[in-house]
Amino acid sequence: MIFQVFLILPRPGDPELEYLSLGQMFAEHLTQLLFMVVGLILIVMYWIQFNRQLGNLVRSTPLHARLAVVQMVFLMIYLYFVRFDMEYNGLVLALQMESIFLALAGFIGVFNWYYAKLNGLTSDQIDKNEETTMLFSLLPEPLASIFTLLFAVLGPGIWTIAFLSIVPITWILNRIKKRYLLTE
Predict the structure, then answer these.
(1) What number of other Cβ atoms are within 10 A of residue 131's Cβ?
(2) Cα gap 102→45, rounded to integer Å
(3) Could you say which residues of the chain have pLDDT below 50?
(4) What are the structural domain ranges in the chain?
(5) Quick one: which of 104, 106, 85, 77 has its CA closest to 159?
(6) b/e string for 38-54 if b means 16 or more Cβ within 10 A?
(7) What is the pLDDT of residue 41?
(8) DSSP state of 18
(9) In the chain, alpha helices (H)
(10) CA 84 to CA 171: how far, in whole Å?
């Protein structure tokens, strides 16, 4: 995706470069840059979560390892559709597939953590509350991805803005988590 950012910039020999300021150049490609920034943020979030999950494991099982690989494959398919989206300027199918594959990657991560928690694969360094907190922290991204699926038909701008739903979804899940931890 970082490479794609540089591909949309004008080439050094491009005659348009003489007439455009840097601000005009970015303004002309603002939508594409916004999509790439959102995509990069989501990938970084999934990568951080994936590392947090693996960092809190002491061992794995064959099923657990397969699920982690499948999660990474879904993230790679998501990246494919990001490129597809860029090539075809917000094609509804590409937006929908981005939402679907982000959701699949996220829900597999949630299930994988739950599986690890149930099967004693997590570190003794974290307690049950921290395990539960991790589980709840993994849910906002896939839930927001499912939510954005509904907005893909309205266009790429609205679809991208719909990802801000992650803020209220996180807030709601934090409230549910607090209640859950109090009753446990």
Answers:
(1) 17
(2) 11
(3) none
(4) 35-183
(5) 85
(6) bbeebbeebeebbeebe
(7) 77
(8) G
(9) 2-8, 22-28, 30-55, 62-87, 92-118, 128-138, 140-149, 156-162, 166-183
(10) 32
Angle between helices 62-87 and 92-118 (to 10 degrees): 160
C-alpha 181/C-alpha 184 separation (Å) is: 5
Backbone angles phi, psi at 139, to 5 degrees: -80, -35
Nearest to 76 by CA among 102, 54, 95, 52: 102
Residue 29: DSSP 8-state:
T
Q: How far is CA 153 from CA 90, 129, 142, 157, in A?
A: 10, 40, 19, 11
Name the token pair of 142: 């896939």
| Structure confidence at residue 180 (pLDDT) | 86
- Residue 89 — left, alpha, or beta (φ > 0 → left; ψ -120 to 50 → alpha)? left
Please state, in angstroms and rounded to a whole number, the distance separating the CA atoms of residues 31 and 19.
Answer: 21
